[in-house]
Amino acid sequence: MIVILGTLLVVIVIVLIEAPSLLKKGLKKELWVFGILLLFGTGLNIAQGLQVVIPNPMDWINVIYKPISDFIFGILR
Amino acid sequence: MLESGKIDGKQFTVLVFMFTTGSSFILAPSMLASEAKQDAWLAAILGVVVGVLLAWLYHSLGNLYSDMTLVEYSEKILGKWIGKVISFLFFTFSFLLAALVLRNMGDFITTQFMPETPIKSIHILFLLIVLMGTRLGLETLARSAELFFPWFIVLFLLLVIFISPQIELEKMQPILEEGINPVLRSSFLIIGFPFLELVLFLMIFPYVNRPKEAGKALLMGTWMGGVILIVLTALTILVIGADQTTRNLYPSYYLAQKINIGDFLQRIEAIVAIVWFISIFYKLTICFFVSTLSLAQILNLKEYRMLVFPLGMILIVLSLVSSPNIVYLASVVLYVWPSYALTFGLFIPLLLLGIAAVRRYV
């Protein structure tokens, strides 16, 4: 619970810092991107705080690039 | 242009220097010694030579479009959609690198200084300064780097001078005990781990006020950073030996712990930590700055500063997830990273350079 509240508090502070100047300049697209990224970040942080297992992008990279590393280190063996 | 700041050639050199030493300052010796043993210094020299060649490649690509960033000209060279896909992959590369660098820093503090503090709080504290630096922009960042540069050099020289009485030349022998292949394997690791990452500077290239100087500065910074890495690796091998270097995760820190001048001047390993904090701060900020800037340019935004905090929040989680523990870091990340970096540091620049040359002359 405290994780969710704490994260939301941080989010409110971030919105208060960034949103007013974006609204004043009328940057609609920027505001959308900002909102979507912030929503994504909030979700991730709450999930991490509640110890939900989050997929590791390094594992995906490992699947793709391990054969290449195996090959390069193999010829240097 | 998104970023209005301009930096000069000297500041660019310092940034490249800080980036090259970056996290490698403390991780490179053990990484090199893991394969090459007492020949780690040879592997470092080889790595730096290749690194300078890579810097020369980036220099020629950067000079071709000296007023555009990598994201902008990849769209121009490859067409809108393919260019955007490549740029997006480039963004994930720099963002993931930022997460791993932050994690290196957190691992170091939790294992050496504050074992009981949760790593997340250290990450948040360190990232706050990085976010601040990114929001202030490139010009401020470059100027502060210029201020820190003499400190870096002085502290590094102090380390070299104080440890030099303990050098034992026989620790370097036998040279090339198992042939050249272990040396090549090690140098592949170091080529991937700071030098291929220099491709990020193609995003900063157009902000150097005289484009001619930018290329030279890039080469110069790579050289200087490389020399620091070579000296450091050689010192670690000469003083604590290949065996200890491999077994320690942070051998250059251990090296500084061994300093003992007349039983009076000792336990000054904090100087290594300070040097490392300075350089890793710049490495992390450059990675983060490049990620933010490239994302803003991919989406054609008019500003990039509002992306800083949301991306920072994502980065915190990514840094905790991307290398769950030190074993994973050593066995997976360090093993796979060079080939991953090869895609972005060698393959994509060569592809862009090739297509641009064909378009220009045909």
Question: Could you walk me through the main structural features you see in this protein, from its secondary elements to its overall organization?
Answer:
The complex is a heterodimer of chains A (77) and B (362). With 77 residues, chain A is an all-alpha fold. Chain A has one domain (2-75). Chain A is 84% helix and 0% strand. The longest helix of chain A is centred in the first third of the chain and has 24 residues, at 2-25. The radius of gyration of chain A is 20 Å and the shape is elongated. Chain A starts with a helix and ends with a helix. The mean pLDDT of chain A is 91. Chain B has 362 residues and is mainly α. Chain B has one domain (9-354): Amino acid/polyamine transporter I (Up-down Bundle). Chain B has a two-stranded antiparallel ribbon with strand order 1-2. In chain B, helix 2 (24-36) crosses helix 3 (40-64) and helix 3 (40-64) packs across helix 8 (181-192). The longest helix of chain B is centred in the middle third of the chain and has 37 residues, at 211-247. The relative contact order of chain B is 0.22. The chains are: A mainly alpha (77), B mainly alpha (362). Chains A and B meet through helix 1, helix 2 and helix 3 of A and helix 8, helix 12 and helix 13 of B.
Question: What is the domain tally of chain A?
Answer: 1
Q: Class of chain B in CATH?
A: Mainly Alpha
Roughly how many Å apart are the termini of chain A?
53 Å
Our measurement of the CA-to-CA distance between the termini of chain B, rounded to an integer number of angstroms, reads 30 Å
- Superfamily (CATH H level) name of chain B: Amino acid/polyamine transporter I
The H/E string of chain A reads HHH
- What percentage of the residues of chain B does DSSP assign to strands (E)? under 5%
The percentage of residues in β strands of chain A lies in under 5%
Order of H and E elements of chain B: HHHHHHHHHHEEHHH
The largest pleated sheet of chain A is described as: none
> Roughly how much helix do the residues of chain A carry, as a percent range?
over 70%
How would a textbook summarize the main sheet of chain B?
2 strands, antiparallel
Number of domains of chain B: 1
| Number of helical elements of chain A | 3
